Amino acid sequence: MLEHGAAPPTTPRPEPEPPAAGFGARLMRRKPVERLVAEGGQGEGGSLRRSLGMWQLTMISIGATLGTGIFVVLGEAVPDAGPAVIVSFVIAGLTALFSALSYAELAGTIPVSGSSYSYAYATMGELIAWICGWCLILEYGVSVAAVAVGWGEYLNELLDGTLGITIPDALSAPPGDGGIFNLPALLVVLLSMAFLLGGAKESARANTIMVVVKIAALVLFCAVAFTGIRAGNYTPFMPLGMAGVSAAGATLFFSYIGFDAASTAGEEAKNPQRDLPRAIMLSLVIVTALYCLVAAVAVGALPWKEFSGSEAALSGIMEDVTGQSFWAVLLAAGAVVAIASVVLTVLYGQTRILFAMSRDGLVPKVFSTIHPTTGVPRANTVIVSLFCGVLAAAIPLGQLADATSIGTLFAFALVNIAVIVLRRTRPTMERTFRVPLSPLFPVIGFALCLWMMGSLEVVTWVVFGVWMAVGLVLYFGYGMRRSRLATAEK
Domains in the chain, start-ordered, CATH in brackets? Predict the structure, then answer.
């Protein structure tokens, strides 16, 4: 049901479904945009509710993006670039921008849940869509677990600074990392699950509050650390040359992952065709501005050579500038809230992607069953939350966490291709946002994603290959035969 004043998605002119003929054709069968839009929001036993406006959608993307990156990444990036880390943030932001433009066009043209999975289904066929969805499951699921582990570390820092106590290692780290069970990691996932079960509007409201808190924490850092800025800390500005700036930019790119989270809310937005492109672009601008501001203040307040890979660089700067531990504790509190909002929004995105794949028949129906009272996929949310919570609490992630990056970049690359394909196959379709200078910008976005993927370690590619192999076994053993497009052909 649309709320009062909400504009329904405009249904484009129908596209004929090509007849399937043979094995290859079944792999390439596409789901027409009209069918994707018509089925929007519909699940087993109910439908999702359109309750999210542009501001809430923007907060979802900021919530998924602005988290552990800015609180820990400076300690890793500044030794590579020196004060020119500011330029590195700009380069990484521009790299993300090309893919963000493609996401914005497709989110406004195909306003459904599923993000790049649904876009690939409409343009490149079922097999590519499955591969893309499988990459998103890796990206969202493992990143929830990895971020939840980081939440426990900041929670201990906060407890130590306020109460003088910490959670014992046995209960704050998984086996293999010096512990038995990571209780805080499980706790933050279960708290996020509770918010999500209350409804999209309620969880979006909680996320908005958390995003405001973490933005306030970063602004506070800038205000306090600004008093410690020394002009000499900015010279030499580029001590390690452009190579160092580029290396830091590649590292910092992954601080921008998450801006696409709003695209998973296409079926719960009041006016998705208008608001989704705006939310995606606005969130990227806000996050980039914050990153550059924090970086500029941080390297001005602390000589770049003293950034020795510390994961608490911002806290250390505040303590050095003021000579008081109070500010560091306050920033730790902001980090706890920041990471919690990342868990909430990424977990939300994971459930909506599985919802779309389930509705298409590629995964079991339980993932698209809607609770009649709250209008959310309850069983989906519980299953995903428990899986991610146990993964974070009981299994050392190690190199698996790095695989989220390659899965994300692969999905980004496919979205850039999807824009070009849809422009050629459906040139007259109504688009509320258009990528400028297409196909040049999508091609640049695609090339940048491949370049970033090529910079990843070999072990990450191995993990990615194993994950893809498992996904293909599941598709050919289950999804290909149970796909709704397959059953419609019989």
Answer: 56-485 (1.20.1740.10)
